[in-house]
Amino acid sequence: MTELKRNADGRALTESEQEARQKEYIEKAARALSVIEQAHGRALKSSVVTFGCQMNARDSEKLRGILAAVGFEDTEDELDADFILYNTCTVRENADQHVYGRLGRLTGLKKKRPDLLVGMCGCMMQEEHVVRKIRRSYPVVDLIFGTHNLFTFPELLYRILTERKKVIELWEGTDVIVENLPVRRKNSFKSGVNIMFGCNNFCSYCIVPYVRGRERSRKPDDILSEIRQLSADGVKEIMLLGQNVNSYGKTLENKMSFAELLEKAAEIPGIERIRFMTSHPKDLSQDLIDVIARTPKICRHFHLPVQSGSTEILRRMNRHYTREDYMRLVDRIRSAVPDISLTTDLIVGFPGETEENFLDTLSLVEEAGFDSAFTFIYSPRTGTPAAVMENQIPEDVVHERFNRLLAAVKESGEKQSGRFTGRTMDVLVEEQNREEGYVSGRLSQNIVVHLPGTKEDIGSILPVRLVECKGFYYFGERV
Ligand code: SAH
Ligand code: SF4
Ligand code: F3S
Q: CATH 3.40.50.12160 region(s) of the chain?
């Protein structure tokens, strides 16, 4: 399954050889780009469009870093770019459909601007049927690569700049984690940090293990030195990223648990807030809860996807915990960290979900007291066990349940909201508000607060009195 990148004499490249090779290609691509720019008489622009999760957003920062190192000017407006790269997601069918729609638009654009280059990467590209469809129906696409060979982007970029013909390179898997390629962060004050890649859990509905490959943890030293560097660059908040951070370290030669990693990260001066995403309930340890409780820098927000409140559905989802296990975790987290804000992911309409199973989900939402939840309609993904399960739920039933679930989540959120009114709490200011003279930021609990302020406040952590709660956000006053 695993295929390592081989060089000309057929030898598999090590991680550091691969790093050196890609850095060389950044130089070569830069020279190729400047020749093209001279011919055009202007600088060329690139735009990376991200679909999907935080992991993809972080990958896009790496892609942007490489494009910037090669000499492309970054633009947010894809219609203004000479090279458009779609970093895709395939977790649900509507993610795929959205991308196809946008590709259709680009087809029209390329008719007007034949020099336009279009690239596609990310999770969708790891599915054979998707690549087949793109090759057949979307000739507008010049470059295709996948999640496993993202770090070979410099080499692939060089090839499309010089060869001017379609480049398609997809790997089935990889063992290598290539470090130290350029990154361009979206925000100056916060950053994602990958701690692991892939997923081994094979929840029966989920495509991620198939498109992201097996679980691999980065070495603690690489992670911690990246965080130190981020801190030196002025970053105050980091988010440790993995599909199941609670199983961090299991693939390492020198084992380290996620709780230990968190504790070490919290020792780094300058880093004021640490978040993490995502936690799988089956691997959540008491050690982790204890570390959070005694480390104020770790944010008081726990995103703990439950997916369903029915033990029977959870079993068929291959989640490896029961409703009761989940509720015990919630109790343990709340008693150790009383100020925690708890959020979750929920799926409705999993194959065979009965009204009774669904009512279990509704009652769990009420019992757990979530601050908010992402709610999803089950979407069959080709190749996953759930897609071929009998008893797929009719659309009208699913929609009706989905609306009831939304109402339950809203009610739970409303019960939680307002509990900090009157308190003075730290807000990390993230952006200017649309309202003149206001800025918006977040509590450690990840709850949004609007307060008077200016652009200069962005990236500062300010004590703010929470004056009024407006549903899911607060208005605050600086103290
Ligand atoms: N690794 C994370 C989830 C990543 S995917 C975890 O296990 O918590 C984010 C969310 O998308 C999942 O939690 C799930 O709620 C939802 N999801 C995944 N596959 C789905 C599918 N086939 N249909 C509907 N929702 C899905
Ligand atoms: Fe998907 Fe489950 Fe892995 Fe999360 S833990 S990415 S839901 S297989
Ligand atoms: Fe989507 Fe891939 Fe993330 S499928 S949710 S972008 S891991």
A: 15-169
Ligand 3 center–CA 451 separation, angstroms: 33
* Å from CA of 52 to ligand 3 middle: 5
- DSSP 3-state assignment of 218? coil
What digits encode the pLDDT tens for the residues 52-99?
A: 999 999 999 999 999 999 999 999 999 999 999 999 999 999 999 999
Question: Given this model, what pLDDT does residue 10 score?
Answer: 60
Nearest residue to 204 (alpha-carbon basis) of 392, 349, 355, 380: 380
As assigned by CATH, the class of the 15-169 domain is: alpha beta
Query: What is the distance between the alpha carbons of residues 86 and 408, in angstroms, rounded to a whole number?
Result: 35
Contact predicate 272/264, CB 8 Å? no
Question: Per-residue pLDDT tens for 153-200?
Answer: 999 999 999 997 999 999 999 888 999 999 999 999 999 999 999 999
Which residue's CA is the nearest one to ligand 1's atom 20? 206
Read off the tokens for 389.
């399960």
Query: Where does the pLDDT of residue 4 fall: very low under 50, low under 70, confident under 90, or very high at 90 and above?
Result: low
- Domain 192-298 belongs to what topology? Transcription Regulator spoIIAA (3.30.750)
CATH 2.40.50.140 domain span(s) along the chain: 421-478
| Protein residue whose Cα sits closest to atom 4 of ligand 1 | 243
